């Protein structure tokens, strides 16, 4: 049975994303050639243009894929926590710790913002922000954290985790920066608690 056009298009998108992800991780966005990545995927430049518009569109798809995987990993860690507060803290720390991953560093935290702009405006960050807001609302309702504006608190917590990760990725010694960033993130988050730990 012949493949439907939509199946072929999805396969081509997946091949291009996989090839670009490997190329961007190995060489960085600027050095990755469109001819090389389309050849790596076994496709033409036309397929790249048709599916993503241009190289920047392809980077956006790769960043979205990795950022979504990062969110899932952080949520898995949070799911093991024994309270909603600890889950919120663990999710933020997990996101910060992923800044040590070389692929995350190069594609999401260095090339992504340089090419795609402010990460807080990316669709994947927006969905994480909304999930954080829901947890903050729950924690306010149960009296764990101070009755502050839930969206403001969610934005500040998300921004702190994102900026900590960006700092780690851009530093000369990411392993040395990580514990400082995590400690500061926790201290900032704990300032929201009604009763200090």
TrEMBL record:
Residues 33-52 bind DNA. PROSITE patterns: HTH_TETR_2. InterPro entries: Homeodomain-like_sf, HTH-type_TetR-like_transc_reg, HTH_TetR, Rv0078-like_C. Pfam families: TetR_C_41 (PF21351), TetR_N (PF00440). Residues 10-70 form the HTH tetR-type domain. Keywords: DNA-binding. This is HTH tetR-type domain-containing protein. The lineage of its organism: Bacteria, Pseudomonadati, Pseudomonadota, Alphaproteobacteria, Hyphomicrobiales.
């Amino acid at each position: 049975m012949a493949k439907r056009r939509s199946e072929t298009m999805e396969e081509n998108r997946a091949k291009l994303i996989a090839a670009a992800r490997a190329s961007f991780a190995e060489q960085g966005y600027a050095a990755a050639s469109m001819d090389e990545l389309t050849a790596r995927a076994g496709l033409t430049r036309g397929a790249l243009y048709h599916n993503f518009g241009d190289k920047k569109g392809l980077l956006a798809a790769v960043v979205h894929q990795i950022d979504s995987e990062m969110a899932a990993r952080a949520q898995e860690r949070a799911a093991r926590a024994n309270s909603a507060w600890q889950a919120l803290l663990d999710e933020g720390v997990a996101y910060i710790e992923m800044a040590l991953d070389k692929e995350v560093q190069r594609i999401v935290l260095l090339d992504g913002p340089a090419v795609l702009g402010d990460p807080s405006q990316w669709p994947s960050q927006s969905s994480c922000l909304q999930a954080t807001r829901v947890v903050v609302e729950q924690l306010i309702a149960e009296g764990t954290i101070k009755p502050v504006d839930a969206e403001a608190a969610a934005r500040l917590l998300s921004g702190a985790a994102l900026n900590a990760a960006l700092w780690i990725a851009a530093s000369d010694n990411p392993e040395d920066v990580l514990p400082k960033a995590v400690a500061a993130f926790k201290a900032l988050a704990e300032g929201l608690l009604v009763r200090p730990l």
